[in-house]
């Protein structure tokens, strides 16, 4: 029998607000232990939380960007459990009235992954275990999170990966999170179940906690799929439980001793008041948001005449998309702008993180000026390339590297003279060309380009050279 | 207008330089130290801080600087109000040795006014109790009769103020913990409207009920202290900007004021207490107020509603005492989980554990709807019942407690029996209303009886004036000063 | 009626230990308290969506950093600390 994978994701994303969700301590990553702390975020008796406005705004943005309904009325709840990383012994979260509901994220295969909800909550501190000793650091305690919960709509590992990547792109795009899995600012709990193909109802699910790498997630899901299919085929039952993924063995294993821990005794957080998102508030948040990446992609293709693949690469990081848009605006040749970014600039940016930062020496305005020279026919693409290279090295504007001669362009007579001279100097190559060796012409063209310092139009020059030789 | 306020009286003595603040503070410290052996009102004296503030007040006086209304006034704080650098224990073993690193907003306000902190006052452990006897330091005694309890949970403050070991104190009231001990000790206790006074720094028992308020010798004093502390606080999201100053309203005519008397409040009230209440109502009639008898049947569910919701919140609020960040940690344990469990089991007293367990139970899977949710709905019913009542009366007059101060060790027997004594005080907390207890005579045991006046939300100016009018008319017959402490 | 097992389960959730000799009296205590609390179920009440009795809403703080406390202060009350961490040492 064939089995189908059913996955649902709960994704925790740290928001990139300046301060924590309930106190004014910095959210900066790292730092000496317990140095981003105050009486509130270490839960001293008598302290009270005060909700950070930006957290609500960022969460609403995330909701709007994922097609959610924004709840006009929501509230905060306490999720109670005693654990040393939770200084109040409860996490302030949202239970039955989340800020955002019923959204979706579209995949490239056309499927929509439905979102059940997005709610806001606080992160826990960090425990360091060392030979049975527990060291506790509350720097991360109280950092704002959104939890994005899908319906069990994902049907393959590829879909899971694309969904997470898509989510990362959207959230980075609207600027609410850097979504760095390796730093833990995006973590997933994966619900996995299997069912025979064609069966309507879902199987019993297992939840794999706290995945912070796409590669491990793929391994964990694959392992879990096999494990559950094996169990069913051997007549055993899948137990609903929480499992953890062991990176060493590549296996998932049940987490024991948690039988009571699921009774979180949620109730309304009495120290906080209702959150009301009016139409005006929602609209004003919407106005602050950048364009939806999907819409922007369509617009890049139509307005700038870009191949979709190129547009997609530009869109992936908002800084790059913004950069492109500034540099390409009003240019006759926006494709050249895209090529400069995707070619020469990307060549200098190794990692995804570097692309996300997009720190290049050339401003988009400088690139725009360079492209205008191309548009006006003053310089050719090859000169654009070599000049851009120098600009990227130095951060200086194009004018610094282009002589008046470069900018003067070339008359037809000048070009003809140069070409005749080149043919005369390369008699052997000319003879080869006449004898049928097409490639020989390239060598002569090379010397034309060298002599004109790239100002010659290579196609024109090639045609001219062929004429001269045949004549 | 008879001057019954001790705060204005001390203010006058200081400003006319009849006594220096340092001298006055020393007298209070001295009597607190000696009388505390009998009363056990204080769990910690703070002479250093007190004398430092007193010296500052004397300096200001000498320099002719303007003094704040509460400058130089000797006072006390219930030991669940956080004081930076001064041990704050909630009278629980689990918080022994804990020294806050920040000030509660109310203490910050009083500090800026140069109020003189004599010491931290005794209380029921985590404010859970009606006799002060669940304190890990033993209970405070009633200055009227030291074989009787001072009441609870703010028993230490009531005992200190009634015995004049402090001119006023701040207590907290979750289900009657200001009004009940004030009633037992024959003084005034005001539980302000929920949100009128900041809770920031008040160690939580039940967050949606807790409210800090003054315990004083007179209504005038209560109004002065209320005006000082009823301030909007950005640190407390439930703090309101609606509170109005009350002192300036004292003395207004109450002719034609309608006083509602709901009959259900008098079920099971001891006859001598009832009689004292009847006399008080007669005084009001003589002042031109109109008594309106009515019925509030929903009151009868207020006790279970209160215990379910307050204990639910408490079970969550008290989860943090795990021996990791502050407070006591058990001596012997094998691993971390055992450390947490043993620290909590050894650190909390029996009553606190009972309430944590009840609260955990009513919130746990399978019981939430039957208990927590149901109680929450009934809370709404009760709030509406009070709203209806205030549509046809200005204040409500009821007993504060159905009896007078218990003998020592009386409440230890049966938890439920003890809970029943809170019947008259908890509705006010459920509905977030202001309530004040003023002395209204004595029972057959010659212990003080309290009259409780309840107002609509943020009606403190009118409520305190109603209490003030009664005090003006009846003080001689209903108030008895105790011959301990400082004689001014 | 609350059983011994339920009491033990609640105690586990609340991180309290119940000694075997305490169990009987505690169960009895809890039963009488729960019976008392159960009075709420003898009366009908309208369903309220959620309690917003103080009718306040949207009380927010601006996203502005205030310097954190000195670590020394943060750790001041800790029963045990090391290298800037709160510490729970395993015992033998
Ligand atoms: Mg969560
Ligand atoms: Zn903080």
UniProtKB/TrEMBL annotation, chain A:
Coiled coil: none annotated. The keyword ATP-binding applies. One of its GO terms (molecular function) is ATP binding. It catalyses: L-aspartyl-tRNA(Asn) + L-glutamine + ATP + H2O = L-asparaginyl-tRNA(Asn) + L-glutamate + ADP + phosphate + 2 H(+); L-glutamyl-tRNA(Gln) + L-glutamine + ATP + H2O = L-glutaminyl-tRNA(Gln) + L-glutamate + ADP + phosphate + H(+). SMART domains: GatB_Yqey (SM00845). The keyword GTP-binding does not apply. It comes from the Bacteria. Keywords: ATP-binding, Ligase, Nucleotide-binding, Protein biosynthesis, Transferase. GO terms for biological process: translation. Its EC number is 6.3.5.-. Residues 322-469 form the Asn/Gln amidotransferase domain. Belongs to the GatB/GatE family. GatB subfamily. Heterotrimer of A, B and C subunits. Allows the formation of correctly charged Asn-tRNA(Asn) or Gln-tRNA(Gln) through the transamidation of misacylated Asp-tRNA(Asn) or Glu-tRNA(Gln) in organisms which lack either or both of asparaginyl-tRNA or glutaminyl-tRNA synthetases. The reaction takes place in the presence of glutamine and ATP through an activated phospho-Asp-tRNA(Asn) or phospho-Glu-tRNA(Gln). This is Aspartyl/glutamyl-tRNA(Asn/Gln) amidotransferase subunit B. It comes from Caproicibacter fermentans.
UniProtKB/TrEMBL annotation, chain B:
The keyword Transferase applies. Keywords: ATP-binding, Ligase, Nucleotide-binding, Protein biosynthesis, Transferase. GO terms for cellular component: glutamyl-tRNA(Gln) amidotransferase complex. It catalyses: L-glutamyl-tRNA(Gln) + L-glutamine + ATP + H2O = L-glutaminyl-tRNA(Gln) + L-glutamate + ADP + phosphate + H(+). Its EC number is 6.3.5.7. One of its GO terms (biological process) is translation. GO terms for molecular function: ATP binding; glutaminyl-tRNA synthase (glutamine-hydrolyzing) activity; transferase activity. It comes from the Bacteria. Residues 23-464 form the Amidase domain. Heterotrimer of A, B and C subunits. NCBIfam families: gatA (TIGR00132). Allows the formation of correctly charged Gln-tRNA(Gln) through the transamidation of misacylated Glu-tRNA(Gln) in organisms which lack glutaminyl-tRNA synthetase. The reaction takes place in the presence of glutamine and ATP through an activated gamma-phospho-Glu-tRNA(Gln). This is Glutamyl-tRNA(Gln) amidotransferase subunit A. It comes from Caproicibacter fermentans. The gene is gatA.
UniProtKB/TrEMBL annotation, chain C:
InterPro entries: Asp/Glu-ADT_sf_sub_c (IPR036113), GatC (IPR003837). It is an enzyme of class 6 (ligase). Keywords: ATP-binding, Ligase, Nucleotide-binding, Protein biosynthesis, Transferase. SUPFAM superfamilies: Glu-tRNAGln amidotransferase C subunit. GO terms for biological process: glutaminyl-tRNAGln biosynthesis via transamidation; regulation of translational fidelity; translation. It catalyses: L-glutamyl-tRNA(Gln) + L-glutamine + ATP + H2O = L-glutaminyl-tRNA(Gln) + L-glutamate + ADP + phosphate + H(+); L-aspartyl-tRNA(Asn) + L-glutamine + ATP + H2O = L-asparaginyl-tRNA(Asn) + L-glutamate + ADP + phosphate + 2 H(+). Its EC number is 6.3.5.-. One of its GO terms (molecular function) is transferase activity. Gene3D superfamilies: Glu-tRNAGln amidotransferase C subunit, N-terminal domain (1.10.20.60). Heterotrimer of A, B and C subunits. Belongs to the GatC family. Allows the formation of correctly charged Asn-tRNA(Asn) or Gln-tRNA(Gln) through the transamidation of misacylated Asp-tRNA(Asn) or Glu-tRNA(Gln) in organisms which lack either or both of asparaginyl-tRNA or glutaminyl-tRNA synthetases. The reaction takes place in the presence of glutamine and ATP through an activated phospho-Asp-tRNA(Asn) or phospho-Glu-tRNA(Gln). This is Aspartyl/glutamyl-tRNA(Asn/Gln) amidotransferase subunit C. The gene is gatC_2.
């Amino acid at each position: 029998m064939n089995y189908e994978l059913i996955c649902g994701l709960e994704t925790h994303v740290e928001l990139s607000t300046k301060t924590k969700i309930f106190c004014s301590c910095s959210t900066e990553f790292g730092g000496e232990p317990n140095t981003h702390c105050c009486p509130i975020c270490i839960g001293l008796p008598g302290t009270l939380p005060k909700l950070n406005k930006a957290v609500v705004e960022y969460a609403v943005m995330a909701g709007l960007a994922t097609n959610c309904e924004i709840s006009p009325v929501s509230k905060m709840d306490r999720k109670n459990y005693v654990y040393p990383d939770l200084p109040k012994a409860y996490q302030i979260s949202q239970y039955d009235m989340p800020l955002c509901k019923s959204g979706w994220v579209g995949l490239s295969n056309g499927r929509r992954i439905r979102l059940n909800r997005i709610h806001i909550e606080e992160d826990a501190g960090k425990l360091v275990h060392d030979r049975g000793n527990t060291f506790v650091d509350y720097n991360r305690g109280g950092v704002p999170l959104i939890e994005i919960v899908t319906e069990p709509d994902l049907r393959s590992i590829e879909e899971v990966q694309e969904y997470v990547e898509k989510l990362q792109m959207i959230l980075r795009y609207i600027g609410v999170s850097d979504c760095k899995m390796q730093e833990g600012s995006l973590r997933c709990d994966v619900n996995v179940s299997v069912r025979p193909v064609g069966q309507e109802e879902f199987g019993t699910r297992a939840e794999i906690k706290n995945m912070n790498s796409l590669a491990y997630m793929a391994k964990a899901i694959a392992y879990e799929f096999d494990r559950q299919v094996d169990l069913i085929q051997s007549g055993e039952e899948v137990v609903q439980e929480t499992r953890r993924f062991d990176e060493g063995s590549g296996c998932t294993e049940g987490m024991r001793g948690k039988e009571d821990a699921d009774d979180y005794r949620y109730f309304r957080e009495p120290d906080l008041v209702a959150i009301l998102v009016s139409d005006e508030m929602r609209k004003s948040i919407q106005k602050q948001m950048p364009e939806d990446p999907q819409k922007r992609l369509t617009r890049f293709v139509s307005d700038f005449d870009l191949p979709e693949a190129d547009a997609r690469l530009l869109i992936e990081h908002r800084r790059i998309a913004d950069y492109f848009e500034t540099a390409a605006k009003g240019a006759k040749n926006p494709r050249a702008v895209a090529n400069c970014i995707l070619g020469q600039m990307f060549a200098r940016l190794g990692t995804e993180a570097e692309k996300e930062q997009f720190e290049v020496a050339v401003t988009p305005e400088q690139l725009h000026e360079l492209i205008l020279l191309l548009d006006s026919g003053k310089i050719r693409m090859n000169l654009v390339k070599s000049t851009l290279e120098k600009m990227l090295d130095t951060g200086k504007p194009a004018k610094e590297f282009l002589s008046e001669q470069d900018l003067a362009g070339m008359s037809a007579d000048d070009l003809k003279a140069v070409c005749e001279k080149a043919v005369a100097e390369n008699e052997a190559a000319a003879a080869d060309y006449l004898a049928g060796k097409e490639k020989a012409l390239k060598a002569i063209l090379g010397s034309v380009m060298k002599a004109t310092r790239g100002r010659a139009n290579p196609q024109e020059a090639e045609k001219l050279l062929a004429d001269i030789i045949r004549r | 207008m008879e001057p019954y306020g001790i705060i204005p009286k001390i203010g006058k003595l200081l400003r006319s330089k009849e006594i220096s603040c340092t001298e006055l503070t020393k007298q209070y410290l001295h009597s607190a130290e000696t009388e505390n052996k009998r009363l056990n009102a204080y769990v910690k004296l703070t002479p250093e801080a007190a004398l430092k503030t007193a010296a500052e007040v004397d300096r200001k006086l000498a320099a002719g600087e303007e003094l704040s209304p509460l400058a130089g006034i000797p006072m006390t704080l219930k030991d669940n109000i956080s004081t930076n650098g001064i041990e704050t224990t909630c009278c629980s073993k689990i918080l022994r040795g804990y020294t806050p690193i920040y000030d509660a907003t109310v203490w910050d306000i009083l500090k800026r006014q140069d109020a003189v902190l004599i010491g931290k006052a005794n209380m029921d452990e985590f404010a859970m109790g009606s006799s002060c006897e669940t304190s890990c330091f033993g209970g405070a005694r009633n200055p009227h009769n030291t074989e009787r309890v001072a009441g609870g949970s703010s028993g230490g403050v009531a005992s200190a103020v009634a015995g004049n070991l402090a001119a006023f104190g701040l207590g907290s009231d979750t289900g009657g913990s200001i009004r009940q001990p004030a009633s037992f000790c024959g003084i005034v206790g005001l539980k302000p409207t929920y949100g009128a006074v900041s809770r920031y720094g008040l160690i939580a028992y039940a967050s949606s009920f807790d409210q800090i308020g003054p315990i004083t010798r007179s209504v005038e004093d209560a109004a002065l202290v209320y005006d000082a502390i009823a301030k909007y606080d950005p640190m407390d999201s439930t703090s309101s900007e609606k509170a109005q100053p009350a002192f300036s309203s004292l003395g207004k005519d109450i002719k034609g004021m309608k006083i509602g008397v709901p009959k259900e409040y008098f079920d099971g009230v001891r006859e001598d207490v009832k009689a004292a209440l009847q006399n008080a109502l007669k005084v009001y009639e003589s002042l031109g107020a109109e008594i309106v008898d009515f019925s509030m049947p929903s009151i009868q569910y207020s006790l279970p509603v209160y215990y379910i919701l307050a204990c639910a919140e408490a079970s969550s609020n008290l989860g943090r005492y795990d021996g990791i960040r502050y407070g006591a940690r058990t001596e012997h344990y094998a691993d971390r989980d055992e450390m947490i469990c043993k620290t909590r089991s050894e650190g909390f007293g029996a009553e606190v554990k009972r309430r944590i367990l009840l609260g955990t139970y009513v919130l746990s899977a399978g019981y939430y709807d039957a208990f927590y949710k149901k109680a929450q709905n009934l809370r709404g019913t009760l709030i509406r019942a009070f709203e209806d009542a205030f549509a046809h009366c200005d204040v409500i007059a009821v007993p504060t407690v159905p009896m007078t101060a218990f003998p020592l060790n009386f409440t230890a027997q049966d938890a439920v029996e003890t809970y029943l004594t809170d019947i008259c005080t908890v509705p006010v907390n459920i509905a977030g209303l202001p309530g004040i207890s003023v002395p209204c005579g004595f029972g057959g045991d010659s212990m003080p009886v309290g009259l409780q006046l309840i107002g609509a939300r943020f009606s403190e100016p009118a409520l305190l004036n109603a209490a003030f009018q009664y005090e003006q008319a009846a003080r001689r017959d209903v108030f008895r000063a105790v011959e301990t402490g400082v004689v001014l | 009626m609350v059983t011994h097992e339920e009491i033990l389960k609640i105690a586990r959730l609340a991180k309290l230990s119940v000694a075997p000799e305490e169990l009987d009296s505690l169960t009895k205590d809890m039963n009488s308290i729960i019976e008392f609390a159960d009075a709420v179920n003898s009366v009908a009440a309208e369903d309220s969506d959620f309690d917003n009795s103080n009718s306040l809403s949207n009380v927010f703080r601006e996203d502005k950093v205030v310097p954190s406390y000195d670590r020394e202060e943060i750790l001041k009350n800790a029963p045990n600390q090391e290298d800037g961490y709160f510490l729970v040492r395993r015992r033998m």
